[in-house]
Design goal:
Radius of gyration: 19 Å
CATH architecture of the largest domain: Alpha-Beta Barrel
Structural class: alpha/beta
Number of helices: 12
Strand content: 15-25%
CATH class of the largest domain: Alpha Beta
CATH topology of the largest domain: TIM Barrel
CATH superfamily of the largest domain: Enolase-like C-terminal domain
């Protein structure tokens, strides 16, 4: 780990923001984050609120790297992105897709708590209908099924010509078993949580439990750490967001633009889910793609989405605790 910048430098420009979502996503209607400026530009710290400090510290390491160190050289100047469809009723699908200009791939959330398989089937059917036969449709269960449930769901959804299924089950062993069971369907299995939340992010590849990796810059500790994981795993990768602000999305785009191979459209178009952002011109897809770039919030944009005072205190205290954990790791190392 590189030396840490002084905490006072991090906090000097830190702003806590709360971005409203057009549609409920992951059970929330507002996405909170901390953005701050380093010598290389603005960066973001936004682990989900339910994560403990030890896990969240990895997100802070990524934010500090992006703000204080140059990014790897890009190998592409355009990153194709997918639309992301939350677990909405089928009747709302077209409205969601309309927010994603020119996207020819859609990732559909399934296995939502409180819903049933029939809800997923109706939603995916609506997405396939809207995308047409040439569009690509992938699903993301966020580990919400056991193996039997996942097998049943894949059979029910296979008629919609799935590009791949992301994290259908929570455990690596479950992914491996499901992959064996549905191998004859020729539907690839992607791993997300089994990489970003694992103490050993390469275990899923060694176990033969996935055909591709879904990677996110913040939870993997930064752009360089994510690139190293992909290189060692030897599997195709899809770069996705963690429902970041446009500042965080620029970190994901730095990762996507530096990957030697990028076979799939990336899940970095999620600024389209917000009704406000930290920049005047959010990183929303145009003609199905984004141009890798760093963005700089304006004071006016930050003021418009500033979080409530108690939430600002909560986040800055959390950032400080995570900084102290990184500091302790450096001392021990």
């Amino acid at each position: 780990m590189s030396p840490l910048p002084p905490l006072t430098d991090v906090l000097a420009t830190a702003r806590v923001v709360a971005l409203p979502l057009a549609t409920r996503f992951r059970g929330i209607r507002t996405r909170e984050a901390v953005v701050f400026e380093g010598p290389e530009g603005w960066t973001e710290f936004s682990p989900f609120t339910e994560y403990g400090d030890a896990e969240a510290a990895t997100w802070l390491a990524a934010a500090l790297e992006f703000g204080w160190h140059p990014t790897p050289a890009p190998v592409r100047s355009r990153v194709a992105v997918n639309a992301t469809v939350p677990a909405v009723p089928a009747s709302e699908v077209e409205g969601v897709l309309a927010r994603y200009d020119g996207c020819r791939t859609a990732k559909v959330k399934v296995a939502e708590a409180g819903q049933v398989l029939a809800d997923d089937v109706a939603r995916v059917r609506a997405v396939r209908g809207a995308m047409g036969p040439e569009g690509r449709v992938r699903i993301d269960a966020n580990g919400g099924w056991n193996v039997d449930e996942a097998e049943r769901a894949v059979h029910a959804l296979a008629e919609f010509d799935l590009e791949y299924i992301e994290q259908p089950c929570a455990e690596v062993e479950e992914l491996a078993e499901l992959r064996e069971r549905i191998g004859y369907l020729d539907i690839p299995v992607g791993a997300d949580e089994s990489v970003r939340k694992a103490s050993d992010p390469l275990r899923v590849a060694r176990a033969g439990a996935a055909d591709l990796l879904v990677i996110k810059a913040q939870p993997l500790g930064g752009v360089r750490a994510a690139l190293a994981i992909v290189a060692e795993a030897g599997l195709p990768a899809v770069v996705s967001s963690a429902l970041d602000t446009s500042v965080g999305l620029s970190m994901g785009l730095a990762l996507a633009s530096a990957l030697p191979e990028l076979e799939f459209d990336c899940g970095l178009g999620t600024a389209a889910l917000f009704t406000a952002d930290v920049v005047a011109a959010p990183l929303r897809p145009r003609d199905g793609a984004l141009t890798p770039t760093r963005v700089s919030p304006t004071t006016a944009s930050l003021d418009r989405v500033e979080a409530a005072e108690d939430r600002c205190d909560w986040w800055l205290q959390r950032l400080t605790r995570c900084y102290r954990l990184l500091e302790a790791d450096l001392t021990r190392g």
